[in-house]
Specification:
Blueprint lengths: L7 H29 L1 H20 L4 H29 L2 H29 L5 H7 L1 H14 L4 H9 L5 H16 L6 H22 L10 H19 L2 H6 L1 H7 L5 H16 L1
Helix pairs in contact: 1-2, 1-3, 2-3, 2-5, 2-6, 3-4, 4-5, 4-13, 7-8, 7-9, 8-9, 12-13
Keywords: Membrane, Transmembrane, Transmembrane helix, Transport
Subcellular location: Membrane
Organism: Solanum stoloniferum
Length: about 280
């Protein structure tokens, strides 16, 4: 990022801009996710990826660069919420865990691809623009892919059970969506039976949710174990500082003795390979 001769503080703002955006996106996902649905949430995320990546790549000044990064981060926050939910709600239980794991693999493969692009473009004048802009066509592909997919059948039924629309109408939409996802004829009996079972399950779960509770229940009984495991995984991922190594790999390697930025950028690929493995 020598194009603007950024100071350490300015560089930090550019790097962390996507994280601030992701934080805001995650917070927005909580109140709006059930209204939008998983499919639309991911389409919006793709639009934000496209807008943020394009704005950053074409930034005429530092201000535009600092604006583009949080916009991109908003997409991260929405996608990290919507993607696992869409997978969990649309995939057969036998392969659900595998597909969610593949999503995580895709993330680290994307990091590795980013290092490859960075190593290739590092010697090009204004090459950082290509690095940021490389995300735009991928965002288009993501948006187009989600556009061709149906809404989550479970989300459609949940909206009906929450009183957001007539149950029969949403039930028919859910059957059609599930049939499309499974490659079956529209309205087949197997999909209809699965939707009936899902309605019963959701009604039971929604009735239980309506019972009053409080946050302290998270710290009691079985919830405490889940909270401890989930919170512990996040804590130990972050407390080691490994995300900072990923963000500043080039600078760290230069400080370690790789005087040329190009050499440092290319050695960063090794870090990406270890991240994948």
């Amino acid at each position: 990022m020598t194009w603007y001769n950024l100071s350490a503080v300015q560089l930090g703002l550019v790097v962390s801009g996507s994280l601030y955006g992701a934080l805001i996106g995650s917070m927005l996902a909580y109140p709006f996710a059930d209204f939008l649905g998983r499919r639309r949430e991911l389409i919006i995320a793709a639009i934000l990826y496209l807008a943020g990546g394009s704005l950053t790549a074409c930034a005429p000044e530092l201000g535009a660069l600092l604006l583009g990064r949080p916009v991109y981060g908003l997409g991260i926050g929405l996608a990290m919420h919507g993607a696992p939910l869409y997978i969990a709600e649309t995939c057969p239980s036998q392969i659900r865990g595998t597909l969610i794991s593949l999503k995580e693999l895709a993330i680290v493969l994307g990091i590795l691809l980013g290092y490859f692009v960075g190593g290739y473009e590092i010697d090009v004048i204004g090459g950082w623009r290509y690095m940021f802009g490389f995300s735009a066509p991928i965002a288009l592909l993501m948006g187009f892919g989600m556009w061709t997919l149906p809404p989550s059948p479970r989300w459609l039924l949940l909206r009906a059970i929450q009183g957001k629309g007539p149950l029969q109408e949403y039930k028919e939409k859910a059957i059609g969506a599930l049939s499309k996802l499974r490659g079956r004829p529209a309205g087949d009996k197997v999909s209809e039976k699965q939707i009936e079972d899902t309605i019963i399950s959701l009604k039971t779960a929604y009735t239980d949710e309506e019972a009053e509770g409080n946050f302290l229940e998270v710290l009691q009984g079985p919830s405490l174990k889940a909270f401890t495991i989930g919170g512990g995984l996040v804590l130990f991922q972050q407390i080691t500082g490994q995300p900072s190594v990923l963000y500043y790999a080039g600078s760290i390697l230069q400080s370690a003795g790789f005087s040329a930025a190009a050499d440092a950028a290319r050695v960063s690929v090794v870090i990406g390979i270890f991240k994948v493995s």
